[in-house]
Amino acid sequence: MHRTKTIEAFVCATIVGVTACTTSSGATASGARSSFPTPPAAAATYTPPANAPTYTPQASTASFSLLPWAGNPGGPYPIKDCSDAGGIIGASDPVALVQPHGLEVALRDYADPAHPRTVCRFSNNQIVQLIDSRHIVVVGVTATNLFAVVDLPELRHHWFQLPVAPKDWAVLLGVSPGLDAVAWLSLDQNRQVNIHITTSQGDQVTPAAPSPSTGGGRLAMYERAAFSPSGKYLFLLDRRLGGNNNLEDPSLRTLLILQGSRVLLRLEPPAGGWAVDGEPAMPLWSPISDTLFYRQNGDVWAWSPETGAAILLPKTAWCFPTISADGRYLAYGAPHSPDGTYNVYLADLRGSLAPQAIGKGPRNAPGFLNANLLWYRAWTQQTCTTDGSQSLLYDTTDGSESASSLDQVYNTWPATSSDYNGVDAFLAINGYSNN
User: Fold this and answer.
1) Does residue 12 fall inside a structural domain?
2) Domain that holds residue 159
3) Mean pLDDT computed over every residue of the chain
4) Quick one: DSSP state of residue 283?
């Protein structure tokens, strides 16, 4: 599987000065999927459930032991060192997978935001998931469908392998917060796709739609999935290729929310596919509750098991949503003028919910590092070959903005980021593939 930046992510990242940058299909980025249809007239307005459980994010103390693999994984290993850990990482310490300017990708501890601490350095692109402050998932290179949950900073590797027939295909979706479940996809030779949630009690399987064929008859899916903070629920955003190119077709997307093998929400394309910008996009869980936020039909929706789905922010064309580690603030990028420039908006999920633009000038691609520190990019001039961007930090406590030494924020915990500003972006930038 080869992961690339989709058309939507390309458009979300287009800020200033781009007039003729082309995608691999030859289509121009300007104007691509840029209008939003009228929202459904019968949509409800979201009201947070009064008695819904909330969680205090903490790194798991369990030892991962599912789907064990007893072979020799060999090298290379993605972790360069964890010598700067300075002792055990706090179980609730906020951490971020980042690219400091001029340095390797690093895992940093932001418990003390004034003095962030580098925990580990990584020498290549084998990281596929940041589970919590003490666990990551890496992909092996010596066997098919081989992965490991790695305990940090001890560097203990718990290798596991997805169990599929030799000619079938599998994709890892994620490991649960409690290290007690693995979600993955299988694709058999009849093009039947199954969603698996494997626990110590066995394998729960949910059939999905057959994968469409692309140019040359090749089968491919581009997906994003994550467990909720409690580990009880899993969302899967099926992003499939369409036509005879290597681009994901948003009109074919399906969003599922599962509890085991039970489907609680299914948003699948109608006949002929979704209308422009009608597809579900950029879902992310709250870090403190089993609430999923996503965009559809030009609105931002919220789903919880207690209330179902309802509109949270009407007529909001968001990109790169991110939620602070304490679950209070929601930030996102959105266009604010016809020239295609974006602003970053901040909404208080415990307050009025009225989003306010922050920063001065074009801003986009935000990502919370902890409860109050928000990283994003500012654009001064952009061409087809350079992005003309500057990294900045915004402090929600006083509204101040300062320069950042980080070139990129790939993923954060317990703060959450969308599918295009997390590990998927890290994999795409590094050209990761797993066939």
Assistant:
1) yes
2) 7-42+59-323+416-429
3) 80
4) E
Query: What single DSSP character describes residue 424?
Result: H
Please give the full DSSP string across 358-371, using - where no structure is assigned: ESSS-EEEEEESSS
Q: Report the domain count for the chain.
A: 1
pLDDT (average), residues 243-248: 61
Residue 14 contacts residue 339 (beta carbons within 8 Å): no
Does residue 345 sit within a domain?
no
**What's the token pair of residue 406?**
């980080």
Give, as one character, the DSSP assignment of residue 195.
Answer: E
What are the backbone angles phi and psi of residue 390, rounded to the nearest 5°?
-130, 135
Q: What is the mean pLDDT of residues 324-345?
A: 88
Decide: 342 and 297 in contact? Cβ < 8 Å: no
Query: What's the predicted TM-score (pTM) here?
Result: 0.86
Tokens of 32: 């691509």
Residue 426 three-state SS:
helix
Q: Which amino acid is at 390?
A: Q
Angle at Cα 397 formed by Cα 391 and Cα 400, nearest 5°? 40
- The CATH code of the domain that includes 195 is 2.140.10
Residue 50 burial by Cβ neighbours in a 10 Å radius (0-12, 13-18, 19+) = exposed
Q: How far is CA 323 from CA 88, 100, 328, 332, 345, in A?
A: 26, 22, 7, 9, 12
